[in-house]
Design a protein that fits this description.
The chain is α+β, with helices and mostly antiparallel strands. Helices cover about 20% and strands about 30% of the residues. It is built from seven helices and 17 strands. It has helices spanning about 1-10, 40-45, 50-55, 90-105, 110-115, 135-140, 215-225, and strands at about 20-25, 30, 65-75, 80, 115, 120-125, 130-135, 150-160, 165-175, 175-180, 185-190, 205-210, 225-230, 235, 240-250, 255-265, 305-310. The strands form three sheets. Strands 3, 4, 5, 8, 10, 11, 15 and 17 form an eight-stranded antiparallel β-sheet that branches. Strands 7, 9, 12, 13, 14 and 16 form a six-stranded antiparallel β-sheet that branches.
């Protein structure tokens, strides 16, 4: 299976210029726009200030989720030390083990704090990361000089309120790891590699097979049936809920992560395969990425969740 996956991914390596997502660094909301031609990381970063100004003119408002990137290949310290477990484990197996331990240990921060953490905080306004090479992903999270492409995870945290009262489900897909916990309960494990005790309460369909021409998506469909439909959540608009999201990469291939939500009773358009076109889970009025063959279809101008950050403690 690993060999098949690597063969598939050989044909879908894309430049960073096609990566589009809302990113927040140093308590400042930043939306990284797609460039029309291949671009380097410095070229993308050079456009950040103009993007922020354009967002301000459009009246971008909303919250954020506070995040940090952890590298399982390095142990915390000054300087960081190589993880001796790499002598017997590949980065993918190491990441799977550590993320599973974290979810099994009630998401206690100390489980991750023994690993090197990127000094720059990375906050998100939406979990919608179109495909990028795994080599580029840490650089986008501003950690490329200190973290290599495999065996890492970003831990996001905040408090959220839904845009309306009702029954909701998260729907997500990721190459490789995506786990969502709400008020202490795991409500979605949407990665290619499962790293939690998540079990869907939906009888059918349990996943949506969006026809994306990506090697990782083909594997996701084979392994999980497609984008995984999460556990039902009965939520009230006037209440807040603590949310934690893990997004990570295990192999040296491609990385993508998409998180949507679906409200019971909602009316959604369908794609050509009959899958619902859902709104992106977002907590700010950030501009959406362009529709295209390398992102799943999404509802334009979908509802916005309210959010308040939960600051993560300093690393020992």
């Amino acid at each position: 299976m690993l060999m098949n996956r690597l063969v598939l991914n050989r044909f879908v390596r894309l430049p960073l210029g096609l990566l589009v997502f809302a990113l927040r660094l140093h308590a400042q909301t930043v939306a990284v726009e797609a460039s029309p031609a291949p671009a380097t990381v410095p070229a993308v970063r050079a456009s950040v200030s103009a993007t922020v100004e354009a967002g301000a003119e459009r009246g971008v408002t909303g919250g954020r989720l506070v995040g940090h990137l952890y590298d399982f290949k390095q142990l915390a310290g000054s300087p960081p030390q190589p993880n001796p477990d790499l002598q017997t484990l590949e980065p993918l197996a190491l990441a799977e083990r550590e993320i599973r331990l974290f979810t099994e240990r009630d998401w206690r921060p100390e489980t991750l704090q023994r690993f090197f953490r990127s000094p720059r905080r990375v906050d998100a306004t939406q979990i919608f990361f179109p495909v990028v090479s795994a080599e580029e992903a840490p650089r986008v999270f501003d950690a490329g000089e200190r973290i290599e492409e495999s065996g890492w995870v970003v831990h996001f945290r905040g408090r959220v309120s839904p845009p309306a009262s009702g029954r909701f489900r998260f729907v997500g897909g990721c190459d490789d790891f995506l786990v969502v916990r709400l008020n202490g309960k795991i409500v979605l494990d949407g990665g290619i590699h499962e790293t939690s005790a998540f079990a869907s309460d939906r009888s059918s369909p349990r996943a949506y097979a969006y026809p994306l021409d990506l090697g990782g998506n083909h594997v996701l469909i084979h392994q999980r049936g497609g984008f995984v439909v999460g556990h039902a959540m009965d939520l009230r608009q006037d209440e807040t809920y603590e949310i934690e999201i893990l997004v990570g990469e295990g192999l040296k291939d491609e990385f993508f992560a998409f998180l949507f939500f679906e409200q019971e009773g909602g009316v959604y358009a369908k794609d050509k395969a009959g899958n619902p076109v859902l709104p992106i889970f977002r907590v700010a009025d950030t501009p959406p990425p362009p529709q295209g063959q390398f992102v799943p279809p999404f509802q334009d101008n979908g509802p916005i969740w309210r959010a308040w950050p939960i600051e993560l403690g300093a690393q020992e």
